[in-house]
Amino acid sequence: MNKELMEALDTLEKEKEISKETLFEAIENSLLTACKNHFGKADNVKVEIDRETCDFLCYMEKEVVETREDVEDSVLQIALEDARELSQKAQVGDILNVEVKSREFGRIATQNAKNVILQKIREEERSVIYNQYFEKEKDVVTGVVQRYIGRNISINLGKADAMLTESEQVRGEVFMPTERIKVYVLEVKNTPKGPRINVSRTHPELVKRLFESEVTEIKDGTVEIMSIAREAGSRTKLAVWSHNPNVDAVGACVGLNGARVNAIVEELRGEKIDIVNWDENPGNLIQNALSPAKIVAVFADPDEKTAKVVVPDYQLSLAIGKEGQNARLAARLTGYKIDIKSETQAKDAPGFRYEDYMDDEYDEDEDYIEEYEGGDGEYAEEEESDIGFAGEYEGEDGEPAGEDENETGYAGEPEEDGVNQE
């Protein structure tokens, strides 16, 4: 039994997760390479390795010829006289297995054999690492910040390094070496130099995965994140839905005294998170998405994916948000192009008056909204006003509205009265 070889293979299998069978194949190929370098050819060389004891045998298949003068190639043929020393039953024309003494190989042949084994180990190691991280693609992993490479950041994920490019960094975030952060794995590519892993801190799925790991109800499927809109580093809006009527979707995500959402806000360096209830009625959903602003009426057109919203005069700035952020995120969350006007502006604006919808059925409902601002663990419960008209719901894909925005960033029509929108 070759104990040294067995211990070496066990160590490689344990530390680098490389199977023994792969290593046995590497050893066989290395011996064939050594024979080729030593003898000039290895077409008739055979290698056998006992998988249980790790004992190996390398031999050449030679044809028995009558005399030494008849031997044209010593690698392929052997004289009967020499063959009888190995086997008394040898006859002319027989194929005799002649053992090759690997210890007799020269330094160059031995070095080449070693390089074959090392190369195979490196290839398998890269393959194992690639497969390991390819399974984590589109998921969140924890890494350690190593150093800045220009404006990019190198992050160690354990067995491999990932690159956080400038475009995937949140503006204003600064990391120190050895700091532990969570990142979203965008893609894993297999390259000749090993796996190349690209990660992100700005992707909306990062927030979604963090909620899945923090909120048990989301992990087991009781609560589902239906839609998400994010402006990295500033604010994120989530629309959640509970498949169990006895479970409050928003409350489950917020947690006791905001414990669950606070942990996520801390990981995102203070980014504000609004959590609202998903509703199949687009009017109700838009009302929820525009929280914390109070809404007078919502007139939604499911076919055109547009909505006209009326808010109290004093709530216009809040509904639009600073630089139009609240309206913009609500538009992305719902997939509707949202046009917001105050009650004063809506009185004479076509499509904003109740009289324009008198022939349609009204769908009045009161909804409960919880909105978390993040950082202080407080969240407010507000009872919104009745929706004047919500329209019939034809299905929602939750994709961004994709509309052109005016200079304020607000996803609706520009205001005419010079209202301060900050």
What is this entry, summarized?
Helices cover 30% and strands 26% of the residues. It is of the alpha+beta class and 422 residues long.
Please describe the structure with a list of short key phrases separated by commas or semicolons.
about 425 residues; alpha+beta; N Utilization Substance Protein A, Chain:P, domain 4; OB fold (Dihydrolipoamide Acetyltransferase, E2P); GMP Synthetase, Chain A, domain 3; 4-stranded mixed sheet; 17 strands; rod-shaped
Largest sheet at a glance? 5 strands, mixed, barrel
State the share of residues found in helices, binned by percent.
Answer: 25-40%
What count of domains describes the coordinates?
3
Give the class from helix and strand content and strand pairing.
alpha+beta
DSSP helical segment count: 12
**Total DSSP E strands:** 17
* H-E order: HHEEEHEHEEEEEHHEEHHEHEEHHEHEE
Please tell me what the overall shape is. Answer: rod-shaped
CATH topology of the largest domain: GMP Synthetase, Chain A, domain 3
Strand order of the largest sheet: 5-6-7-9-8
**What is the first-to-last residue Cα distance?**
80 Å
CATH architecture of the largest domain: 2-Layer Sandwich
> What is the CATH H-level superfamily of the largest domain?
K homology (KH) domain
Rg, nearest Å? 35 Å
Beta-sheet strand percentage? Answer: 25-35%
The CATH class designation of the largest domain is Alpha Beta
Q: Average pLDDT across residues? A: 80
Low-pLDDT runs of 5+ residues are 360-422
